[in-house]
Structures are given as structure tokens and as C-alpha cells.
Design a protein that fits this description.
By secondary structure, the chain is mainly alpha-helical. It is built from 8 helices and no strands.
Length: about 180
């Protein structure tokens, strides 16, 4: 199959099977907006593939790619939640119960996160802030920044990874 034929067949699958593909992703994610983002990511991933190979059941192949990307998104979301769970738990905690040492350590960690965010490229930092602090969807962030949702996804992942590595690399005061 040549590139042009595959491209036309791929577009046909994503146009005609979009509701089905969104349903596949939504079953994994439990969220229709995220499912739509995953289907878009799948289209980009498959259409940007540089190697062509014969696919006997293209609809099944595309469905599998959508499902795998949805699973990846769930895993990434779980990773992000675990990474920031301590900070989010702190939002509901009573500050009076913390010792001065714990407060100092938490402030140092927050300063480290702010510093590591400032080390990022402006667009990556902005995407992360809009998504995590501004409560915008990845699609909304993409529109504001004029990039694809896939790019936003990678920027958020890069920012999270950078912050995580920064926190892991810092030395904690002796107890």
C-alpha cells in the first residue's frame, strides 16, 4: 500500500469511525473530552509514522492504538497524581499541626519546584501552569498557545519530569 492510499484510508477510518474510537478510549479513561484528545493523538501518531507496513485489519489496528494511548494516558495521570499527592494533601491539612521543621522543608521543596519551573522554556512552563494551576484542559491550553494537544501533553510531561527530578536531586536537611 502506498503512502497516499494509506493516508486516505486512515482519514476515512478516523472520520467514519470516530464515535467508535472515542468510545474505546472513553471506556479506559472514563472521560469523553480526554477520549477525544486520545483519538486525535492516535491520528497524529499513526499519520506521522515514517515506516509503512501492511495492515490486514486497519480499523482493529487503529482501535488498538487508541486503546493503548488511553492506557498510557491513565498511567501518566496516575503518575502525576502520585507525584503531586503530597502537595494536594497539604491543601486540606491544618498548618498548626506541622512542626517548624516540616514547614521549612515544605517551603524549601516549593521553592525548588518554582526554581525548576523557571528553568523550563517559557511555553512549556506556561502550558504546565495553565493545565495544573489554571484548571484548563489540554485542548484549551493548546488553543491559547497555538500548538497541538499532543505538544501540550509532552510539555506537561516534560515539566512534571523536570520538577520530579529536581526534587529527587535536592538534598534534604539532616533530621
Amino acid at each position: 500500500m502506498d503512502t497516499q492510499t494509506w493516508s486516505a484510508e486512515l482519514e476515512d477510518i478516523f472520520v467514519n469511525q470516530r464515535p467508535r474510537l472515542c468510545c474505546v478510549a472513553a471506556k479506559v479513561l472514563g472521560n469523553a473530552d480526554q477520549a477525544d484528545d486520545v483519538v486525535q493523538d492516535a491520528y497524529l501518531k499513526i499519520s506521522e509514522a515514517t515506516t509503512l507496513f501492511e495492515i490486514k485489519q486497519p480499523i482493529s489496528y487503529v482501535s488498538r492504538v487508541v486503546r493503548n494511548l488511553a492506557i498510557d494516558r491513565c498511567r501518566r495521570s496516575a503518575f502525576e497524581s502520585a507525584l503531586f499527592a503530597k502537595a494536594e494533601e497539604g491543601d486540606n491539612a491544618c498548618c498548626a499541626s506541622h512542626s517548624p521543621e516540616v514547614i521549612a522543608i515544605d517551603r524549601q521543596a516549593l521553592a525548588q519546584v518554582v526554581e525548576s519551573l523557571n528553568e523550563l522554556p517559557e511555553r512549556t512552563r506556561r502550558a504546565f501552569e495553565l493545565y495544573r494551576s489554571g484548571n484548563h484542559t489540554q485542548r484549551e491550553v493548546a488553543l491559547q498557545l497555538g500548538v497541538s494537544t499532543t505538544s501540550v501533553n509532552f510539555m506537561i510531561r516534560d515539566a512534571l519530569t523536570h520538577c520530579h527530578q529536581s526534587l529527587q536531586g535536592r538534598s534534604l536537611p539532616d533530621k
